[in-house]
Amino acid sequence: MKAPSRRQMSGEPQLDQAVQRWLDWDQNPWTRAQVQSLVAAGRQDDLRKRLCCRMSFGTAGLRAPMGAGFSRINDLTVIQSTQGLHSYLSRCFPDLRDRGVVIGFDSRGQEESGCSSQRLAKLTAAVMLSREVPVHLFSTFVPTPYVPYAVQKLGAVAGVMITASHNPKEDNGYKVYWCNGAQICSPHDREILCCVEEQLEPWSSSCWEEELVETSSLRTDPLADISRSYMEELTSLCFHRNLNRRCPLKFVHSSFHGVGHDYVQKAFQTFGFAPPIPVPEQKDPDPNFSSVICPNPEEGLSVLELSVLLAEKENAPIVLATDPDADRLAVAEKSEGCGWKVFTGNELAALLGWWMFSNWKDAHPDPEDVQKVYMLSTTVSSKILQTFAREKGFKFEETLPGFKWIGHRIHELAQAGNTVLFSFEESIGFLCGSWVLDKDGISSAAVVAEMASYLYHKHLNLNQQLHIIYQTYGYHLSKTSYVVCEDPPTINSIFSRIRNFGGTGSYPKTCSGIQIVHVRDVTTGYDSSQPDLRSVLPVMKSSHMITFTLQNGFVATLRTSGTEPKIKCYAEYCAAPGNRSECSRCSSDVSRLEEELQSFMAALLDEFLEPERNNLTRRHI
User: Fold this and answer.
1) Which of 175, 182, 183, 322 gets the highest tally of CB atoms within 10 A of its CB?
2) What radius of gyration, in Å, describes the C-alpha atoms of the chain?
3) Of residues 107, 130, 165, 255, which has the active-site annotation?
């Protein structure tokens, strides 16, 4: 391809060099044409955004819109990322060519970029195969949890999952797992990016040859063995199979146009249930997510409309929805006379934590056994598991946001002979047991179904059991929200203002007229509640996260998302367990407290983020 003419040059050496490199290296005709079109139109701002910066690893790996540019997900950036990954793995694992890597993909795709998760997975495999590294490449799309599970079962040195989970249809991602089956974190993520930067030019034409996966003797398809093994291990989470077989409840399942349908069906059969009723419009993979305004079941009833309509028609009291890559789970329940209750991630965690411990305790009556039992959650999630732990005697730990931190901690605890029963993050990410080291919507769906079946035979439903938990352990009321900000300098400015609210180095003293008694800033490592003023959680300089503890017991956190252009906001109020005046609140008192928390959340956004002044888009779904 001929270089752009001088008339087309921008006059900016860095940009011109980036354009030339792209046109020299990219062999995808669709993304080459995108850059050529931007050059011809003189759209220098767009070119700068696409070509003058690179992606970095967030809480779920590399994630960005598909399309041309070094800052986006496309053939070239996936090849570059895989070359860097190979170089780093070669340095860390002398037996890389014996153990190989696992590669999986979801059902995403973008026609105008000639880009699909399957193609990107094949290119990832081609780079590894070009260096004679064995590749365990799934032959069809799989749930994200299958990749970390396969890494452990096959003894691979790493795994790659091509997915953007619940992000908008324009996005895709490159998620990397370490040899222990947990997502990579520091220092591996930084070192891999350094290796990428050292060798940006594709090594050879072999890196572009998708067909290598069909002809190479080093490529295997682990689908049948891994699926069989996964379902066998899933039985360890099934406690009442005979009861499940007699369950009269019907369940509706939506896979949100993603990969979950077949796998949830198999999981239900493994537990002894009849298969759930699929939402026909959303059963099959569709990269356009045609029937939903947003492919994230966490958004609630607005995106569960088809599921609820089908459940009403079929007289099914429970709706289960897995996100497109089936690592998250949303649950809704029909309430007598009150419509449908969509459980938050924190509420589902209260139910699942209670369920997992109750069944474990039935099998382990010796009081000494509880000393080596753990539950985990991320620091922005509800403290309900911490309350359980204090009452029941097991151990609880919290981690930084992102399931990668939970996965590594589970591995460390297991190595020391401990049992991790349950882990979660508030964004509907759950893990029952510890044989997969990432959140898992497939297993969670089956566990929730069994819990609902068990409660039905006790003449209870999920929501009733949730309130029994809160009456026993104290109400844990939480609210979450977010604003969208596409401009990183604005985000930095917002958090700089918070850190210098009352002058240099002075955090806010009040919010909504309520005194702030403690501030923890994980980005800087500051924690006013500690004697040495240093955060117990590790410093996380790559993103912003500040937590405020208020005089009235509210705890609120503001943080940047690791996967989307959002500032997320969390607030929780925890009543003390055993405090009858709190635990026996009538529904009107609980509603009043929820209103207070909602009002506080609104004030938190207005006072600290200033959405109108900073042109932030409020959550609108």
Assistant:
1) 322
2) 25
3) 165
Model pLDDT for residues 576-608, shown as the tens digit of each residue = 665 444 444 455 577 888 899 999 999 999 999
Task: Look up 307 and say whether it is catalytic.
Answer: no
Outline which parts of the chain fall under CATH 3.30.310.50: 476-619
Using one digit for the tens of pLDDT, what is the confidence trace for 183-225?
Answer: 998 889 999 999 999 999 999 999 999 999 999 999 999 999 9
What does the pLDDT look like over 530-551, one tens digit per residue? Answer: 999 999 998 888 889 999 999 9
Using a cut of 0.90, tell me whether the model's pTM lies above it.
yes
**Distance between CA atoms of residues 378 and 427, nearest Å:** 10
Cα–Cα distance for residue pair 494/611, rounded to 1 Å:
10
The domain 17-226 is classified under which CATH number: 3.40.50.300, 3.40.120.10, 3.20.20.240, 3.40.50.2000?
3.40.120.10
Which residue carries 């932030």 as its tokens? 616
Q: Does the bond joining 187 to the residue before it have cis omega, within 30 degrees of 0?
A: yes
Q: What pLDDT is attached to residue 541?
A: 86
DSSP run (H or E) holding 570: strand 566-574
Tokens found for residue 537: 């959680």
Distances (CA, A) of 484 to 49, 488, 555, 569: 18, 11, 22, 11
Superfamily covering domain 476-619: Alpha-D-phosphohexomutase, C-terminal domain (3.30.310.50)
In the block, tokens 């566990």 appear at 447
How do residues 102-131 score in pLDDT, each as one tens digit?
999 999 999 999 999 999 999 999 999 999
Cα angle 6-8-12, degrees, rounded to a multiple of 5: 80
